Amino acid sequence: MKASDLIVKCLEEEGIEYIFGVPGEENADFMLSLEKSEKIKFILTRHEQGAAFMAEIYGRLTGNPAVCLGTLGPGATNLITGVADANMDRAPMLVLTGQGSTERLHKESHQIMDVVDMFNPVTKWATSIYNAVTIPEVVRKAVRIARTEKPGAVLIELPEDIAKHEVDSQPLEPRRFRRSVADDKIVDRAFELLKNAKRPVIIAGNGAIRRRAAKQLRIFCEKTGIGVLTTFMAKGAVDFDADYCLYTIGLGSKDYPTFAIDEADLVVTLGFDMVEYHPRLWNPHKNKPIIHADFLPAEVDEYYHPQVELVGDLAHTLWMINERLEQRGVPDLDLTRQQELRRLMQEELAMHADDETEGTLRPQKMLWDVRKVLGPDDILLSDVGAHKMWIARHYHCHQPNTCLIPNGFCSMGAALPGAIAASLVAPERRIVGISGDGGFMMNIQEMETAKRLNCNLVMLIWEDHAYGLIAWKQESQFGRHTDLAFNNPDWLQLAESFGWHGYQVTESKVFADTLEAAFSKAGPSLIVAPVDYRENMKLTRRLGEITQPCPLSS
């Protein structure tokens, strides 16, 4: 068979369901081979960056890789932002790029560049196929690396002449094995630390949202009552209705949840990634005893120097600790302070539930209503901007992977293509993406993709005519901000031109009803709301007020 046929068969054998991308002439053979596949669906996107974001969100939601595809040169460079985002946010992904003939790779030639070297810093592995016989091994290795904890992106480059070669090879059968587990004696050491603590707290990171890990974490917390702080990317690891949920950390400012760390005599991190919330922000004096439990050893950092490292499958590690609780009993803990902090944060979240402003809508009120309209398994996707900070603080989850926030590489423009992928993965769920007007315009062309696929999704734009997060940070640091303002299109005309349902909301009291109305319509909908970002600096001042030791309320 032809090499391009073989690579398709290998992808089928690996269970690949979707390839998102923009083809070019250098991967024409592959596209013709893919056209014959009955197992893999190709989604034509309007930009390679959109394809990469779609593959990223597919990977985050399913735990399995999808493929994003581009041709050589600009096709490959257009992919790289979304690929970097997926890699740093721990999403399994395959990246497939075309390349010119191997006969011209050694010299200056049209659109030729070293794609493999360019992708090396933003992938777990990047390689080119120079011999068609190696395709089964390359694809098997690529998928294995992409899925192995911590998951990430892998690049395969297929030169156009190699794609045409005749080859007599067959796909390798995928064989998957259990991950390694933490050593019993080291788990005993961790349990001793836990037994001797009085005010331990848990920081759940990205690795804790794997379903098996989240299940064991909840069992652990039900037994002990120890409070859990989640990073932006770990939302839903515990149900926010649970008494032990202490909400989210990561804003970079003191907030009610962070007092639980200040007052803790032991910090247990689960699946925690350094890129999520740097330890210098929660361990500034470098004096917190830490138990590190993760798939990988701890990053070396002066603010993060664990007493014990539990390295191995996180779900199994938690199961081992739960077994010890059963056999040796639950430690005698003092968690009344954590409960008080939880109550204070609950009051904070409900403060704007009954807002009925006109002209602009407060971020807190919109997120309160979004939470009310979405069910426990529905999915919210955040873009990057000021709205991301509000979502992190005010939107909380019942289930893992129901609020997806880019927080490693933090690329703008992810929410719309991400919502498209989510609608393909979970067509039975309500899907809402939230973007600022800046981020939304960065991949606006994918509105056509959403309509062509007739995706059931709602995109909510918080309109402020500026790069609001940059303005917020500059004003916080310098007392003023530079010129960050821009103009926007007529959103309703834009929605109509793409065949979307369009809504504009200027009153808080009708926002929830508008969201319900949008979900009642088949196909994609756009809701635009003027956001009151005067609340940004109010929040900064509010957080400043609680940097002093937080008293117990009467």
Automatic annotation (TrEMBL):
Gene Ontology BP terms: isoleucine biosynthetic process; L-valine biosynthetic process
Keyword annotations of the record: Thiamine pyrophosphate
Similarity-based family: Belongs to the TPP enzyme family.
One Pfam family of this chain: TPP_enzyme_C
GO CC entries: acetolactate synthase complex
Organism: Candidatus Thiodiazotropha endoloripes
Domain Thiamine pyrophosphate enzyme central: 187-319
The Thiamine pyrophosphate enzyme N-terminal TPP-binding domain, residue ranges: 1-117
A molecular function (GO) term: thiamine pyrophosphate binding
Name of the protein in question: Acetolactate synthase
Chain ranges of the Thiamine pyrophosphate enzyme TPP-binding domain: 383-528
